[in-house]
Amino acid sequence: MRDVLGAACSGLCLIHCALLPVLAATGTSFIGFAILSSESMHLWLSVAMLLIALWAFPSGWRVHKRLLPGLLAIAAAVLMLFALFASEASGVYWVVASCLAIIGAHLMNRHLLSARANG
To answer: H/E element holding 29?
Structure first.
């Protein structure tokens, strides 16, 4: 459940960070565009991703004893930090890489947990 929630939250972040610049560049707007593009939305998504990761990866490691999902999650956090300090144009690429890395980490963690439970 934790990893599904983490992957879903990261997927929402990916959609948010990749789609909103495209919509803004094309002049498309909709109700809620201002809320979705606000800095507070970035903060809430980042905090949610961090809290879910802190909930999922240590407990997963205690069961399957594999470091790779946690290391991939740490790499994703570093990529997200790069995004914070990058220009707005290149920041999107760092965020996309970060979201894909954390989604992969959650899916790997889930796979290792289910393999452990079934094996």
So the answer is: none
What is the amino acid identity at position 54?
A: L
Tell me which residue range forms the domain holding 77: 2-118
Choose among 22, 1, 29, 12: nearest CA to 109.
Answer: 1
Q: Which of 61, 82, 80 is nearest to 70 (CA)?
A: 61
Counting the structural domains of the chain, the total is 1
Are 45 and 9 in contact, with CB atoms under 8 Å apart? yes
- Half-sphere exposure (Cβ direction) of 43: Cα atoms closer than 13 Å: 4
Contact between 72 and 101 under an 8 Å Cβ cutoff? The reply is yes
Q: What is the pLDDT along the chain (119 residues), one digit of tens a residue?
A: 899 999 999 998 888 887 777 777 777 766 666 666 677 777 888 888 889 999 999 999 999 999 999 999 999 999 988 888 888 778 889 989 999 999 999 999 999 999 988 86
Q: DSSP characters for 38-51?
A: SHHHHHHHHHHHHH
What is the pLDDT at residue 5? 94
